[in-house]
Write a structure and sequence with these properties.
Keywords: ATP-binding, Cell membrane, Membrane, Nucleotide-binding, Sugar transport, Translocase, Transport. This is Multiple sugar transport system ATP-binding protein/multiple sugar transport system ATP-binding protein. GO terms for molecular function: ABC-type transporter activity; ATP binding; ATP hydrolysis activity. It is built from seven helices and ten strands. By secondary structure, it is of the alpha/beta class. Strand 9 and strand 10 form a beta hairpin. The protein is globular and about 45 Å long. The model has no long low-confidence stretch (mean pLDDT about 90). The strands form two sheets. It has a six-stranded mixed sheet, with helices on both faces. A four-stranded antiparallel sheet has the order 2-1-4-5, with helices on one face. The chain is about 35% helix and about 25% strand. Bound molecules: adenosine-5'-diphosphate (ADP) (2 copies). One adenosine-5'-diphosphate binds next to strand 2 and helix 1.
């Protein structure tokens, strides 16, 4: 479940070529890390997989299905944004319940699932707070818990640790890895931090100016 295939993807913004003929396969259950300098096309790949943007050419298959053929509410993809994108006027619990309510999950069932996801990410005692009453690391966990509740077959993480300070980044990296091992959900993770790419991905794809230069296990990519 959750195999991704990118075929000959191209995307330009005006004169800027963001992606130039990108082919990539992510295996079901794998964590693939996209690494490369700022502007190399990493976020564009995530947005295309999420269906938040369309390619100019090529196609994206998730479990063999062309993403553009699947209506948004049927896409089993959850994206965690760099700035977490939490609703500031809702409590942590409200943030977790929001998507479940939209999907018309019964209140008691939604409550049970939200609390269970919060426990899993160690934020069970923050449910009554508002996002601005929590730390950066806690907000990161709220965003992950909310993504968890979508029960995705694919996680897309856009620099999920970038806004954390170094010690927290290190601790959260370990948690992220444990969560991935535990869930076994296909994950595409974007970073420009080489240490993160070394430790977080089963495989690493190195992007440069809209092209994939290398794909392989971290040791292999960084030994060359
Ligand atoms: P990365 O995530 O590696 O930093 P991006 O995928 O965000 O790179 O961007 C790739 C290139 O496409 C950059 O040159 C960026 O400026 C450009 N780009 C991305 N999104 C847009 C957009 N919505 N409008 C204009 N240019 C964009
Ligand atoms: P739900 O989360 O239950 O789908 P939302 O109102 O939050 O309800 O989302 C509406 C639509 O926006 C979703 O069907 C989905 O396509 C898209 N969407 C929302 N959140 C995300 C996310 N984290 N990653 C990717 N797509 C999302």
């Amino acid at each position: 479940h959750g195999a991704i295939r990118l075929e000959s993807l191209t995307r330009s913004y005006g004169r800027v070529v963001a992606l130039d003929d990108v082919d990539l396969e992510v295996r079901a259950g794998e964590m693939m890390t996209l690494v490369g300098p700022s502007g190399s096309g990493k976020s564009t790949i995530l947005r295309l997989i999420a269906g938040l943007d369309r390619p100019d050419g090529g196609r994206i298959l998730v479990d063999g299905q062309d993403v553009s053929q699947v209506p948004p509410h049927r896409r089993a993809v959850a994206m965690v944004f760099q700035d977490f994108a939490l609703y500031p006027h809702l409590t942590v619990l409200g943030n977790l319940l929001f998507g479940l309510r939209v999907r018309r999950v019964r209140r008691d069932e939604a409550d049970r699932r939200a609390r269970s996801a919060a426990e899993r990410l160690g934020i069970g005692d923050l449910l009554d707070r508002y996002p601005d009453q929590t730390s950066g690391g806690q907000r990161q966990r709220i965003a992950l818990a909310r993504a968890l509740l979508r029960e995705p077959t694919v996680y897309l993480l856009d620099e999920p640790l970038a806004s954390l300070d170094a010690p927290l980044r290190f601790a959260t990296r370990a948690d992220l890895l444990a969560l991935h091992r535990d869930l076994g959900t296909t994950t595409v993770h974007v970073t420009h931090d080489q240490a993160e790419a070394m430790t977080l991905g089963d495989r690493v794809a190195v992007l440069d100016r809209g092209r994939i230069r290398q794909v392989g296990p971290p040791q292999q990519v960084y030994d060359e």
